[in-house]
Amino acid sequence: MTSLRDQFRPADHPNDHFLLTTIVGAYPKPKWHDRAREMYENPDADFGDSEWQEAKNDAARLVTGEHERAGIDVVTDGEMRRNEMVEYFADRIEGYEFNGLVKVWGHNYFNKPSVRTEVEYDDTWLVEEYEFTSSVADRPVKVPITGPYTLAKWCFNEVYEDDATLAFEVAELVNDEIQKLVDAGARYIQIDEAALATTPDDYAIVEECLERIVSDLPDDVYVGLHVCYGDYSRIYPEMLEFPVDEFDLELVNGNYEQLDVFKDPAFTKNIGFGVVDAHRSEVESVEEIKANIKRGLEVVPPEQLTISPDCGVKLLPRAAAYQKMANMVEAAREVEAELDEGIVDVARSSASAD
Amino acid sequence: MVEYESAATGLLPLPDWAKEELSELKGHQKQDLITGTANDDVEDAYDRARADVLATQTEAGLDLVTEGQLRWDDMLSHVLSVNDNVDTRGIVRYYDNNNFYREPVVTGALEPTGDVARDLERAADTTDGTLCGVLPGPYSLAELATDEFYGEDRFLEALATYLAGEATECPDLDTLFLLEPSLAVHDTEEPVRVREAIDTVADAVDASVLVHTYWETIPENVYGHLLDAAIEGVGYDLVTSRVGSTSLADEYGTPESVVLGVVNGQNTILEDATDVRRDIDEFVDRAGATLERVYAAPNTELFYLPTNRCEAKLETLARAVDSVEVSA
């Protein structure tokens, strides 16, 4: 059976089984890249648009290459051009403006934008990023994009009647952007809806947003949804109705305590299964990660299992982040080989519709 | 004739320079937050920030100013975070917001620390404005905290006694706000016990005690007990719960004083002073003859806002009250 995922299988893939490996969220930025941003933001520094552009390209090229060296099947540039998951997009959407930092907890602040006028699509958000990354990558490139529910929920809504109405309007803009990304060649889109974890009762709003996002997309576009740090039992099994191909879930952090949630009823979509912890700098061994991958096989068969880190690894030391990726790929390849040899029990047979 | 005062409810945003300076001095992690002891540089930064927000409130034209509760890293549960017999543990959600605080776990007998009194004394040295005090209400504090010492039948009373002790150490104040959002958002099954806890704090001070509630309408049974409490006033959130709050006042009356949350502490949208005044007038018209004093205030704490919007809203409050006074 050919699945949408097979388009991402490398021609020289060594095993019959294919556990697609990919990354999630932002990767650690090289220190020099942070320094470059500081200089770019300092009006007294002799560091202008072209120098900053060069720095972003260099960082994107570097991290894309780092992912490829680790053996990741579908890579990203580690979001080297982005500052923060809401701010980056709010800065590019007509209608949002910034008034200053607000407290999240302790001395952790967020430049929380306000929606001051009706939101409108202006210039593209990610097409340039995608085109550059695919030009320097030998592997397929995934595009992570912050979802409309999160863009609506994590701002001050001054205009729309409620956050749902704002989210639906933003969803139309996300759809515009994804259409442009698809025209540019993107085939793997990951919607990041971090806010859903904090307000799971709003899953119907997220579903409605996703319907708008995927409207009129070509059949060969693979859409994932990343949700992190939540009580999944509050959105499962309802989330299986979402019009996406894959759910990327953060699970190691909770020591797979939530895994049983996904066993009944059966998980009918693909699962992006978190197998390395994004918040622990100690690097998991290949053996440990293999054991984690096998936990995934308790929930879905191999053809529905995508292997990824729990969440963005951006807070880890870069060397640890790299080693986690490399070990993750090695573990996935070893489990594939074991599956080929028939020495791994597969609890689930395919329940996927695709 | 009704008197009108403009006031902030406390927990103001840190000035932007202080956000940067203090995060560099203190760090970003759980263990870096306020514990009751701090080094001189941190204390100095807070002193300058406190002077800043006091000046901001005075310049905005507020009748009552607060010291800003800038050191309250854990929001309302700060008064526990600084106590030696409280462990601060994991990060937990602060009501229904995308804000978090360290879970305070009471592990031993609570003795007053004088922490709040000390900040008020420092504030009094730097302002000529009329300073009001701010404390969490005992019920909200009990809802935010975890008890591993007193037991369920004693915890609320212990917190009330603790808060009364902190209040007693404060310099003389005309007005003391007890912030009690939990009274509106959690439906207590023991309104008598809650009223007695509030009385414990109120009886400890000479100040006029105002129990402010927000995010929802106070349940009717709780409201009845609040009217019987030994306090001067009750606060209503007219931003989120205008109809419900006005109905309460209409049906059951009000205490002598009311705090009216009339500007939105959680949205940057700027209210018009004329609209704010209309909301105040409408409530006063419905409240009946017992009402003597109105405190116009934000509905919630203000730390949710960027500083420029916080300042603009304080100015709106002052203008709204001035316009009521002119027309009265």
Write structural notes for this entry.
The complex is a heterodimer of chains A (354) and B (328). With 354 residues, chain A is of the alpha/beta class. Chain A has a single domain (4-82, 123-341), classed as TIM Barrel (Alpha-Beta Barrel). Chain A is built from ten helices and eleven strands. Chain A has helices at residues 31-41, 49-70, 87-90, 127-136, 148-153, 163-183, 194-198, 203-214, 286-296, 318-341, and strands spanning 94-98, 102-105, 108-110, 113-120, 142-146, 156-157, 188-192, 222-227, 246-249, 270-276, 305-309. Chain A starts with 30 loop residues before the first helix and ends in a 13-residue tail after the last helix. The model of chain A has no long low-confidence stretch (mean pLDDT 94). With 328 residues, chain B is of the alpha/beta class. Chain B has one domain (3-327): TIM Barrel (Alpha-Beta Barrel). Helix content of chain B is 43%, strand content 17%. Chain B contains twelve helices and twelve strands. Chain B has helices spanning 16-26, 40-60, 78-81, 115-124, 138-144, 155-169, 181-185, 191-203, 220-228, 242-252, 273-287, 307-327; strands at residues 3-6, 64-65, 86-93, 100-106, 130-131, 133-136, 146-147, 175-179, 208-212, 233-237, 257-263, 293-298. In chain B, the strands form three sheets. Chain B has a seven-stranded parallel sheet with strand order 1-12-11-10-9-8-6. In chain B, strands 3-4-7 form a three-stranded mixed sheet, with helices on one face. A two-stranded parallel sheet of chain B has the order 2-5. In chain B, helix 10 (242-252) runs parallel beside helix 11. Chain B is globular. The relative contact order of chain B is 0.15. Chains A and B meet through strand 2 and strand 6 of A and helix 1 and helix 12 of B.
